[in-house]
Design goal:
With 262 residues, this protein is of the alpha+beta class. The chain is 37% helix and 24% strand. The termini are far apart.
Length: 262
């Protein structure tokens, strides 16, 4: 109802029902439209967050896989492995076919740990291999074996804690394993003596040398010349008295002669 002036009668203005309904309908549709835009915007950002999450996860996996590849490459380099082998197998997937990220990361972590354990184990085995004496210190004849024998000078029965290797004077004597020289010098009845500590409980003795060429504390490699054959100390002729000790006990060197070239 409209009242233009105080003196005039009120005017009644009727709005057709169709216009009211149309206005309500347009308002309702507008609200629906705005709501749909809001929902779509929410879904868009939700999808964007999801994509960002998976992008981050894949980036982390790429870093992890690169680390695994470096470990594998170092593993093959150290131990000269030529064959190609799968490191990751049977990766589980979701029913939808998408990758189970957490499961994949867990499998990769376990694989890296396993490769690391194998690498550590093989490092130890390689060190033991390097420390284990192999072959003879001089390529000559064994004139007196390990064990019970008649002493060549006294004629009495005694236990021979090593082997005697007869040779010409001046023949090079070589270390039978990598190690550090713990003694090099005169040792009474042993004459000029060289003792090498190889690690993992192994040590070797080389006695009656004409001359030692190494010093205490010096690192030596298998096959490196450490002395020359002589007949110093209690000796009946040029030879090398060679002993192998394991964990503080002398052992039969013949058991390690078979390891030469292995």
């Amino acid at each position: 109802m409209l009242i233009p002036h105080a003196k005039n009668k009120p005017l009644n203005l009727k709005v057709p029902l169709i216009i009211l309904l149309s206005s309500f309908l347009f308002t309702f549709l507008g609200v629906i439209y705005v709501f749909s835009i809001a929902v779509n915007t929410f879904e868009y950002y939700k999808m964007k967050d999801t994509l960002n999450y998976y992008s981050q996860q894949f980036a982390e996996l790429n870093t992890t896989i690169s680390t695994l590849k470096k470990v594998e490459d170092e593993f093959r380099r150290l131990f000269s492995l030529n064959s190609k082998e799968k490191v990751l197998e049977n990766i589980n997937t979701l029913d939808s076919g998408s990758i189970d990220m957490e499961n994949l990361k867990q499998q990769i972590r376990k694989t890296i740990e396993t490769v690391g354990e194998i690498k550590d184990y093989l490092h130890i085995q390689r060190d033991i291999y390097i420390a284990t004496p192999k072959g003879l210190p001089a390529v000559v004849n064994i004139s007196s074996p390990y064990g019970i024998r008649k002493h060549p000078m006294s004629g009495q029965t005694d236990f021979h804690s090593g082997i005697d290797i007869s040779s010409d004077a001046g023949v090079p004597i070589k270390a039978t394993a990598d190690g550090i020289v713990s003694y090099s010098g005169w040792s009474g009845s042993n004459g000029n003596l060289v003792v090498i500590e190889h690690g993992h409980g192994f040590s070797t003795f080389y006695a009656h040398n004409s001359m030692n060429t190494v010093k205490i504390g010096q690192k030596v490699k298998r096959g490196e010349i450490i002395a020359y054959v002589g007949s110093t100390g209690n000796s009946t002729g040029p030879h090398v008295h060679y002993e192998i000790w394991k964990d503080g006990v002398h052992v039969n060197p013949s058991e390690y002669l078979k390891k030469e070239g292995s």
